[in-house]
């Protein structure tokens, strides 16, 4: 094993730390010494050598999986401290560490070792180094699967624990939450429980209506300021199509939105409209109650801001165009530093790795989405699996397996699962594919009516609504119970 | 999918069928119409195309997995009958079907569909056809793993169920019992429970003392008739070594044992002594209360027979030699049809596929065994992992991974497992690596003091001891409860 150790101090605002103490309200737990705030978000960057292919004996090559490590919260006197283990998802693991402040705050409280494990094929954890995504080597994508990833995590925990019996709690948000839940299901001997925040484990074929995501997004926009918001957005699609029919109209769009590249073709128009949709989704997901920079720098409750610019019903084309442009800038140029809008790169400035994710969509993460313009603010779009398959084969040489995840992780049948907290914010479009009802007494479902995408996993903030404070308090109580039970069992 | 369907009638003695009815003693269950005994052990032979590698997207090749199928017990009026699913192990699946009469008897009683699924790389389920074991293609062995096998079973169940909600119960004996237990642990949405008969899931590194197997075998021989049995066997090893030191002695052995090939080298001697050990193990495993032909044709309680021939303490070399020879014939020539003893092929006449198993021993099934002559009837043999590795690399190009199974299936930590019956016969050497204490209330442990290797899984026989009748009755009650619960949940 080759372990490169670099100490990095990540400076991160901890403005809302006082809110942590309020978790204790009614929990009966004590507020422990937090060992100094300056220790938050500090970690060593380490690596563990893991097999590229855990499941066959033909490929013996290995690669270095990156993880972040901090044991400064753990008590020296405790030989078996808890490990709070974040199951990394689609992006650089440092980004998740910085956007999951709750894990750090809880670790301080529970005196736990903090580990953020990077997901293979993301960040710096590349199974084939710089050749990982070499398009002349499509076979390099073969091991980009959930099962291989969970095995990476299992090996890392095995390595970290050694001979020590340590209670490990898995944490994850979004796809990371799915991984945390699945990890507990498949490796219950490795983790005593999992917090799966905003984990849409049912956003798969035949489990959830494909239009739920767009419906929830629409509902979030409809109720953010007033209903004119979604009416305006709903009308805008036809307007863009109409304008794109003439050179003058194309120029009107380019001017209104400060496009870097004006729309020249129908392909460009599609990209532009897809971009707008993506922005609306991201706004809903990151509709946090304070300024944030998770997917892009945004003000507090950005959807409300967007809808403020769309509060008047615009019958006039030019007015509607300008209103949409102003609204969009809440997302695209909140810092007023962007010179022109690059609609061809939807994830510019974000740390989410859509490149990697698009590959996962082509193997196992086949999530059907669709929309109907009659009951959403979006264009009508049927779910077209065939088109997905064709594109996947063309782009990556991969044939998607839409039922892989369901066959392996049980679909709606979670009867035998235990010690998983599924938390979902009702403002989050992904909540539609989440677990909103507990299948048994050992699974906890926590609903956060005022929450966007895994708000509970973020660091405390004075602007946090009561429902997320309550959710975090409940989560802490449940985790405390798991840990207590673990120590009781081994003693 | 290519499904070859052949109807085969397997004629099998059902002499002990009346004992089935005695299962109902005290269970409160009714004896149902058994639909005619002649339907037992009849099956269609079918095949399902499954991926060679379930876990990567690089290898898209498939092969036909064989399975046996009988739906004649199921009621036509029940659209969702139970499936009794045997998770095949190291051998031709028909052999297991014929030696697991209890599954058929229970299926008749529960009106269940019977499925015996063959394990990949055994019988006719060859991932690379006739080239599967081609020694110029060592990469063909890469997919010979537990995880790939469980995925085969999951795909088969998915296929068999289709859209129907059917309660599936997994059954397995020995390694098949390990698979049944692991299948329930990892795919609890696929099977409502598992009967793991004589499943030594803890016969792995650091989980169980490596000498337990030899100690139990010794104990079985010691108590079968009288203690002279093990004293004689214990002394015999040195005698063989002494005799093999001279040509006259070698001839003496060859004559006494009717060897096909006389012992010519020290390598031959090792093979002969290893053969004897293997025979003692097999005698203990198949120490059934009636004539059987599971590992070889044998009389009832063969260990008792063996020890009857060894009841007198033999101080004289020739006497001891002849006594051992007579004893051995209980196993090697019970049918009196064997012309000479081929000690170089220990599994001659058995359907257990030691060729395949030896490969599994070289990837994941690394089971440490050792013996000490001071407290067993065997030669002192330390566990030598390095030697195992060297041989595995030399013979198959495989490097064993001794901790794979523990990391994946939890080792001694079964806290989160549910709905598994671990049954073990105390006369069975494998019981030492079995689960003899329930880790939680949802796991059932059944001890059969008078049972050899998965006796409970065999068909009923008038000679069955009370403890196995009791075990089967308990198993039936538990299975009935699982099935009842399933139907309650879906209605």
From TrEMBL, chains A, B:
GO function term, MF aspect, one: dipeptidyl-peptidase activity
Keywords, ordered alphabetically: Carboxypeptidase, Disulfide bond, Glycoprotein, Hydrolase, Lysosome, Protease, Signal, Zymogen
N-terminal signal peptide: 1-29
Highest rank taxon of the organism: Eukaryota
Reaction equation(s) it catalyzes: Cleavage of a -Pro-|-Xaa bond to release a C-terminal amino acid
Matches recorded under InterPro entries: AB_hydrolase_fold (IPR029058), Peptidase_S28 (IPR008758), Ser_carbopepase_S28_SKS (IPR042269)
Enzyme class: hydrolase
Compartments in which it is found: Lysosome
Record's function text: Cleaves C-terminal amino acids linked to proline in peptides such as angiotensin II, III and des-Arg9-bradykinin. This cleavage occurs at acidic pH, but enzymatic activity is retained with some substrates at neutral pH.
Subunit text: Homodimer.
Annotated family: Belongs to the peptidase S28 family.
Name of the featured protein: Lysosomal Pro-X carboxypeptidase
């Amino acid at each position: 094993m080759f372990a490169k150790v670099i100490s990095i101090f990540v400076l991160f605002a901890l403005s809302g730390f006082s809110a942590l103490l309020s978790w204790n309200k009614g929990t009966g737990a004590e507020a422990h010494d937090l060992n100094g705030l300056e220790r938050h978000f500090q970690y060593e960057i380490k690596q563990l050598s893991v097999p590229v292919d855990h499941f066959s004996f033909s490929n013996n090559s290995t690669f270095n999986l990156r993880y972040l490590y901090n044991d400064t919260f753990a008590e020296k006197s405790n030989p078996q401290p808890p490990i709070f283990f974040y199951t990394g998802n689609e992006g650089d693991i440092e980004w998740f560490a910085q956007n999951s402040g709750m894990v750090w705050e809880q670790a301080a409280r529970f005196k736990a070792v903090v580990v953020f494990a990077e997901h293979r094929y993301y960040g710096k954890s590349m199974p084939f180094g710089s050749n990982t995504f070499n398009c002349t080597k499509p076979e390099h994508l073969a091991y980009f699967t959930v099962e291989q990833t969970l095995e990476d995590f299992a090996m890392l925990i095995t390595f970290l624990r050694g001979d020590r019996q340590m209670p490990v709690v898995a944490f994850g948000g979004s796809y990371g939450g799915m991984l945390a839940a699945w990890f507990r299901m498949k490796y219950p001997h490795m983790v005593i429980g999992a917090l799966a925040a905003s984990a849409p484990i049912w956003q798969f074929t035949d489990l959830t209506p494909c239009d739920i995501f767009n419906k929830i997004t629409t509902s979030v926009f409809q109720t953010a300021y007033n209903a004119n918001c979604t009416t305006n957005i709903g009308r805008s699609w036809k307007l863009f199509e109409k304008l794109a029919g003439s050179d003058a109209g194309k120029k009107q769009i380019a001017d209104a939105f400060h496009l870097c590249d004006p729309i020249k073709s129908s392909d460009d128009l599609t990209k532009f409209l897809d971009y707008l949709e993506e922005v609306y989704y991201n706004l809903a997901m990151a509709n946090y109650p304070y300024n944030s920079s998770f997917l892009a720098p945004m003000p507090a409750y950005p959807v409300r801001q967007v809808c403020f610019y769309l509060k008047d019903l615009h019958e006039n084309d030019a007015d509607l165009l300008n209103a949409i442009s102003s609204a969009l800038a809440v997302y695209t140029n909140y810092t007023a530093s962007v010179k022109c809008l690059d609609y061809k790169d939807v994830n510019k400035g974000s740390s989410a790795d859509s490149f990697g994710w698009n590959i996962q969509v082509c193997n196992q993460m086949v999530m059907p989405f669709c929309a109907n313009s009659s009951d959403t603010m979006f264009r009508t779009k049927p779910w077209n699996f065939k088109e997905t398959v064709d594109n996947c084969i063309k782009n990556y040489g991969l044939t998607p397996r839409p039922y892989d995840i369901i066959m392996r992780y049980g679909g709606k049948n979670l009867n035998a699962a235990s010690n998983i907290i599924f938390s979902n914010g009702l403002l989050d479009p992904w909540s539609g594919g989440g677990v909103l009802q507990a299948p048994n007494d050992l699974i906890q479902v926590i609903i956060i009516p005022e929450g966007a995408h895994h708000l509970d996993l973020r660091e405390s903030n004075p602007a946090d609504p009561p429902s997320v404070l309550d959710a975090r308090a409940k989560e802490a109580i449940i985790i405390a119970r798991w840990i207590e039970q673990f120590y009781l069992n081994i003693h």
